[in-house]
């Protein structure tokens, strides 16, 4: 099992940060994918969301994403599930559940937002700056939306109600292998 974790330094007035993702407006997660059989990297990034389901060839199951490798015809699939809801002050998943999932080494300042079950392929890169919107919940109760631009890993805004700056710095995403 593969997990996608996000981490960041949040200003003290931020309660949580989560991906804006719902059935009505599904988030499109963008990945670089490679075939496990021939090791060729798919020439174009792939978009996967948790709402769409596709029939898997030669199986009764469904997956969030399916494809046939253009080079060796291997059937590949990825099933995307949400794991931890948000990055913030209060832990979303207990330490025991993280340990059972093989994420004991994951920092408490990180959140494993996605659980990715990859069959016949490997996700090698995540592009967090393409069409992904984050909802920032503030201590004041306000909610702001943010996106990270190409090459940027920080975001700044202003909370009008509290009269103070809001910031996310050192934003990063990385894959973790778990159970």
From TrEMBL:
The keyword NAD does not apply. GO terms for molecular function: zinc ion binding. It comes from the Eukaryota. Keywords: Metal-binding, Zinc. Coiled coil: none annotated. SUPFAM superfamilies: MAL13P1.257-like. Belongs to the UPF0587 family. This is DUF866-domain-containing protein. The lineage of its organism: Eukaryota, Fungi, Dikarya, Ascomycota, Saccharomycotina.
């Amino acid at each position: 099992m593969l997990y996608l974790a996000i981490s960041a330094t949040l200003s003290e007035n931020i309660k949580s940060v989560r991906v804006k993702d719902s059935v009505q407006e599904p988030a499109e997660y963008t990945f670089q994918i490679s075939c496990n059989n021939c090791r060729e990297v798919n020439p174009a990034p792939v978009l996967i969301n948790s709402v769409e389901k596709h029939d898997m060839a030669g199986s009764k199951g469904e997956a969030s994403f399916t494809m046939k490798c253009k080079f060796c015809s291997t059937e590949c699939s990825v099933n995307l599930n949400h794991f931890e809801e948000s990055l913030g002050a209060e832990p979303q998943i207990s330490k025991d559940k993280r340990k059972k999932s093989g994420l004991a080494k994951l920092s408490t300042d990180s959140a494993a937002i996605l659980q990715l079950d990859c069959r016949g392929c490997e996700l090698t890169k995540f592009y967090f700056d393409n069409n992904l919107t984050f909802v920032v919940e503030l201590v004041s109760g306000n909610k702001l939306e943010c996106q990270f631009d190409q090459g940027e890993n920080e975001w700044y805004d202003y909370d009008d109600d509290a009269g103070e700056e809001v910031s996310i710095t050192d934003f990063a995403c990385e894959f973790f292998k778990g159970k």
